[in-house]
Amino acid sequence: HLAMMIGKPFKGGVVGSIAPVQPDFGCVNIDSKTGIGSSGGDIAAVDTLAAWGKTVLAGVGVPQATVDAQIDSGTGTAKVIQAALAS
């Protein structure tokens, strides 16, 4: 998946990364503090879509408790990507 977010709540830049995943390419883990995609990130690749949803909700001012109640990744690593937020 890919998303472009525009507006005051969000920083400019790229979050995440792709890497060879047999038989093609796929996303990798993301470090929530830096936004860098790497094998050591604290957000599992499978949870990056849920993390994006949490980040958008946090960016538009939804309280953290509501964000966590509404989006459950199942594995528990989805969290707000702080590196994508302007403040």
What does this structure look like?
A hairpin with a 2-residue loop joins strand 1 (18-21) and strand 2. The chain is 22% helix and 9% strand. It is α+β, with helices and mostly antiparallel strands and 87 residues long. The protein has 2 helices and 2 strands, in the order ββαα. The chain has a two-stranded antiparallel ribbon.
What topology does this entry show?
Layout: E1 18-21, E2 24-27, H1 48-59, H2 64-70
Antiparallel strand pairs: 1-2
Q: Shape from CA axes?
A: globular
Radius of gyration computed on alpha carbons: 13 Å
Q: What topology, given as strand order, has the largest sheet?
A: 1-2
Count the beta strands.
2
* Portion in strands: 5-15%
Uncertain stretches of 5 or more adjacent residues: none
Label the structural class.
alpha+beta
**What is the succession of H and E elements?**
EEHH
Question: What is the end-to-end distance?
Answer: 25 Å
Mean pLDDT: 92
Query: What is the helical fraction, as a range of percent?
Result: 10-25%
Number of helices: 2
Largest sheet: 2 strands, antiparallel
